[in-house]
Design goal:
This protein is of the alpha+beta class and about 220 residues long. It has a single domain, classed as Reverse transcriptase/Diguanylate cyclase domain (Alpha-Beta Plaits). It is built from 6 helices and 10 strands, in the order αβααββαβββαβαβββ. Strands 2-3-1-6-7 form a 5-stranded mixed sheet, sandwiched between helices. A 5-stranded antiparallel sheet has the order 5-4-10-9-8. Helix 2 packs across helix 3 and helix 3 runs antiparallel to helix 4. The chain is elongated, with a radius of gyration of 22 Å. The chain starts with a helix and ends with a strand.
Length: about 220
């Protein structure tokens, strides 16, 4: 049985209660910059924290890669806020990119970096669940409205529905210049390789023919 189905099966025994959806905010970007081992540790740490937070009177389960559902006793909003604070982390970092080019036996490298902060935080939506037939519908609504909301702040479902959605990034700043060819400063490439990281790719400069490899720079204090 899938974890989400297990939660739906078990949650009626804890009603009435406060149904809460937690989501690691911008986890993909954090993974791109810091690597999956760091995010795996983030997930393991939060899994421990949430089990302690709900205690014996509640239920919590990781239902997707970076999402948890929990049921607290009604009136437990302060416990939810304390959990968000306990998980929050704000670190200084040096973020940027490095472009290494080769052409006719010559190698040139150019870098651009900026001081920034990388933030670990959670999105959090909640709703009071009174009757078991309502739970599945509430869960669907929580997932439906769980996007582009401010992290580190518990929002009721009604607040989330009426909140203006605004994308949020866990990295506070990037270099003003996008990567370019170290030889001619061209920015158009015929790509051969790359992934979905913020800065990643290797290919040929369309302007001067140099072979260019672009990689991200991430140094966390």
């Amino acid at each position: 049985m899938k974890p989400l189905d297990e939660f739906k099966r078990d949650v009626p025994a804890y009603l009435p209660g406060m149904l809460v959806l937690f989501d690691l905010a911008d986890a993909k970007r954090r993974n791109n910059h810091l690597g999956h081992l760091v995010v795996d540790d983030d997930i393991a740490e939060f899994d421990r924290l949430i089990q302690t937070s709900v205690g014996a009177s509640g239920l919590a389960k990781r239902v997707a890669g970076d999402k948890w559902l929990a049921i607290y006793q009604v009136g437990s909003l302060e416990s939810v806020k304390a959990l968000l604070i306990a998980y929050y982390r704000d670190q200084e970092c040096l973020i940027g990119w490095r472009a290494a080019g080769q052409k006719e036996g010559v190698t040139k490298v150019v870098e651009r970096t900026v001081r920034a902060r990388i933030i670990r935080a959670l999105r959090c939506l909640y709703s009071v669940a009174t009757y078991s037939p309502d739970v599945n519908g509430l869960i669907e609504q929580l997932f439906e409205h769980n996007y582009s909301l401010p992290p580190n702040t518990p929002l009721s479902l009604s607040e989330a529905i009426n909140t203006k959605k605004k994308p949020w990034a866990c990295v506070t700043a990037y270099p003003s210049e996008n990567p370019f060819c170290p030889f001619c400063e061209g920015r158009d490439f015929d790509w051969d390789d790359g992934d979905d990281s913020v800065y990643s790719g290797s290919g040929t400069c369309q302007n001067c023919g140099a072979e260019v490899d672009i990689r991200g720079i991430e140094h966390v204090a």
